[in-house]
């Protein structure tokens, strides 16, 4: 029996003992005497009688243990030509000061703070400062448009918003302040203050409710760590669901800290004093967990990288970062490697750098296609580890636990469930699927610490979205199978969520925007295969009777509408005008059939189709386009 199997079994046989044991790696103000409170399923709570402060565990405890001079966070920004390393002591001081700024602005325990920042160290500082004073942060990805930000402001009702004058996308400077002002104008809830970080690439004019970051820091006194209940929310992270209204995934502090701390050495094989480089964005869960919280909880060094893997200045930036900071584990999305491969197919940039510290490449966020897996493995000559998880789960569900034991890699599989995750595949009737047969991937309740306890202010939607399809199971929204050896294969979403360049987006949300155009009678948005981004959205609209428009112009308007309402990150570039959408006799749009046609794979036509001739018209339009 391998070590992985032993550990997995220990967590299954006695989860109380396993997770209370894992909790010993965390500093508690009041140590938990119980691991799980399962008295109110499906609302499970971890470490119900524990009290802690996550910021203390991420920063102060390392300084107190004499590691104040070790590098905690490196900001590496090729787009601005700057780099800065913060030691644990420096980061603790900066965070304590910003915590003082927030307290001075009236932010208290349980209050929400929305953070809308590019990839600057201040993003991590603001997150940790909230954790320090028991406030709840909600980071919104910078690529979302004002309307998306406004929806999140109205749901989270923040006391304060933290933002910057601008972000940098390649060579373009994107002014954030007008986007923020527009979002506040659109939102019903108004924050009392906005703290604005001025960046030299484009300074913003501040209004009467705005506070300058630097000025506020200069005047502030540091604030200490406030112990909170383990079950108190640490953050809300909005993620795309099947409609335009995002889901506010709640993360508790105690369970999350325990799970992340466990995952660092056991999954990523990175521990105190070692360096991890997670190339993602703090606006996504990967950024929350493996740029900010997990590396710092482990006393490791984290690299916060501002830029793309390619372009500015070239496709060798990831290798440069690895060499410069002695990175042991690199974590990003497969799409980043496809982008590097496109620009540097032979990997010639690699030869310029010493990558001897690099032991693993971890990939997640979307399906890892076998060709990218092979290319990256051949190029780097190290294990390339696919692993699968979601915003909701906070940390990996299925992975190759490199720090415990490297299991055989089967391309196409993110490998096996981690301790605490009882992953199963069910058929439509809710019966266990045979090994190797596709079905809905579910997790038997309770899920381990770190996973979402509920949705912000919406227990009902939590139950309806995740807990109702199969009683006693969490519905992941992904379809796939488990093979005879227990390897999990994740084939794709079974709902209206798509993954574009590793970014999770709602096709339902985009449909709501297209449908709001005065000339559109009905519409559908589907994800189609894309060689770089994995998937991209493609829109189909049916015009209202009597509308006679120049199609090119109309398409331009529709693309712009989605860009304005959802954001550039939606990457919707293609909208086709079609005479009708294929539907079942009961009026349900046959999206799977449409996806097949758009991808050039002819799916069997469902017998429930209302009018099969619609498909021919659709094919003709797509062939023309
Ligand atoms: N702020 C403002 N705009 C943003 C943004 C941000 N934070 N992030 C992306 N955008 C914009 C981009 O500039 C682009 O705009 P454009 O249409 O005007 O060119 C648009 O949103 C689409 O962005 P993206 O899908 O990221 O495409 P890209 O061509 O800019 O970059 C990759 C493609 C593959 C290089 C990039 O997506 C990448 O590195 N992804 C992998 C890492 C990652 O972030 N994973 C997330 C989860 S692990
Ligand atoms: P997010 O919540 O943004 O992290 O997106 C989660 C979704 O991304 C999952 O539900 C999957 O659809 C997809 N995903 C993440 N990792 C993988 C993976 N390794 N293989 C296949 N799909 C993945």
From TrEMBL:
Start and end residues of each AMP-binding enzyme C-terminal domain:
510-588
- The residue ranges of the AMP-dependent synthetase/ligase domain are 68-445
> What PROSITE patterns does this protein's entry cite?
AMP_BINDING
- Boundaries of each Acetyl-coenzyme A synthetase N-terminal domain copy? 4-58
| Similarity remark | Belongs to the ATP-dependent AMP-binding enzyme family.
**Name of the protein this chain belongs to:** Propionyl-CoA synthetase
Output the lineage of the source organism: Bacteria, Bacillati, Actinomycetota, Actinomycetes, Pseudonocardiales
């Amino acid at each position: 029996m391998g070590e992985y199997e032993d550990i997995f079994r220990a967590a299954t046989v006695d989860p109380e003992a396993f997770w209370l044991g894992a909790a010993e790696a965390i500093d508690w103000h009041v140590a938990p005497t119980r691991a799980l409170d399962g008295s109110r399923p499906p609302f499970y709570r971890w470490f119900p009688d524990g009290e802690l402060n996550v910021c203390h565990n991420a920063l102060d405890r390392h300084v107190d243990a004499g590691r104040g001079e070790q590098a905690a966070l490196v900001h590496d920004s090729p787009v601005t030509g700057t780099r800065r390393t913060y030691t644990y002591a420096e980061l603790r001081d900066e965070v304590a000061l910003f915590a003082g700024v927030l307290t001075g602005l009236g932010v208290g325990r349980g209050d929400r703070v929305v953070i809308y920042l590019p990839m600057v160290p201040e993003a991590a500082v603001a997150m940790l400062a909230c954790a320090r004073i028991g406030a709840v942060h909600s980071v919104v990805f910078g690529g979302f448009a004002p309307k998306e930000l406004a929806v999140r402001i109205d749901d989270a009702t923040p006391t304060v918003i933290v933002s910057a004058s601008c972000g940098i996308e390649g060579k373009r400077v994107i002014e954030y302040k007008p986007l923020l002002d527009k979002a506040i104008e659109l939102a019903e809830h108004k924050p009392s203050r906005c703290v604005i970080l001025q960046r030299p690439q484009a300074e913003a004019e501040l209004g009467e409710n705005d506070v300058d970051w630097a000025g506020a820091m200069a005047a502030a006194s540091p604030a200490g760590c406030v112990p909170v209940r383990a079950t108190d929310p640490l953050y809300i992270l909005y993620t795309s669901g099947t409609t335009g209204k995002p889901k506010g995934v709640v993360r508790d502090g105690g369970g999350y800290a325990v799970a992340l701390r466990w995952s660092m050495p056991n999954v990523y094989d990175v521990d105190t004093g070692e360096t991890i480089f997670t190339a993602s964005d703090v606006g996504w869960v990967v950024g929350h967990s493996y740029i900010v919280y997990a590396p710092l909880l482990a006393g490791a060094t984290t690299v916060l990288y501002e830029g793309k893997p390619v372009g500015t200045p070239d496709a060798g930036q990831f290798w440069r970062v690895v060499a410069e900071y002695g990175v042991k584990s690199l974590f990003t999305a497969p799409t980043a490697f496809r982008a590097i491969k496109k620009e540097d197919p032979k990997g010639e940039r690699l030869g310029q750098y010493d990558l001897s510290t690099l032991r693993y490449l971890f990939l997640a966020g979307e399906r890892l296609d076998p060709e990218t897996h092979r290319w990256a493995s051949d190029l780097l000559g190290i294990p390339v580890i696919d692993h699968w998880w979601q915003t909701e789960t906070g940390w990996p569900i299925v992975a190759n636990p490199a720090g415990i034991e490297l299991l055989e890699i089967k391309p196409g599989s993110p490998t096996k469930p981690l301790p605490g995750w009882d992953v199963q595949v069910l058929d439509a009737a809710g019966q266990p699927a045979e090994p190797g047969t596709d079905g809905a991937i579910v997790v038997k309740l309770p899920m381990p610490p770190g996973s979402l306890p509920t949705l912000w202010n919406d227990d009902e939607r939590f139950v309806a979205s995740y807990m109702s399809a199969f009683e006693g199971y969490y519905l992941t929204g992904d379809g796939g199978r488990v093979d005879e050896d227990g390897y999990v294969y994740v084939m794709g979403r079974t709902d209206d969520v798509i993954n574009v360049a590793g970014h999770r987006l709602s096709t339902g949300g985009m449909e709501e925007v297209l449908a709001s155009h005065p000339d559109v009678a009905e519409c559908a948005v589907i994800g189609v295969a894309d060689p770089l981004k994995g998937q991209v959205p493609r829109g189909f609209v049916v015009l209202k009777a009597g509308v006679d428009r120049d199609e090119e112009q109309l398409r331009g308007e529709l693309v712009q509408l989605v860009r304005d309402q959802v954001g550039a990150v939606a990457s919707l570039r293609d909208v086709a005008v079609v005479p009708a959408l294929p539907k079942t006799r009961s009026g349900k749009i046959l999206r799977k059939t449409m996806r097949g046609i758009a991808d050039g794979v002819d799916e069997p036509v469902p017998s429930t189709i209302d009018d099969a001739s619609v498909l021919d018209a659709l094919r003709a339009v797509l062939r023309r386009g």
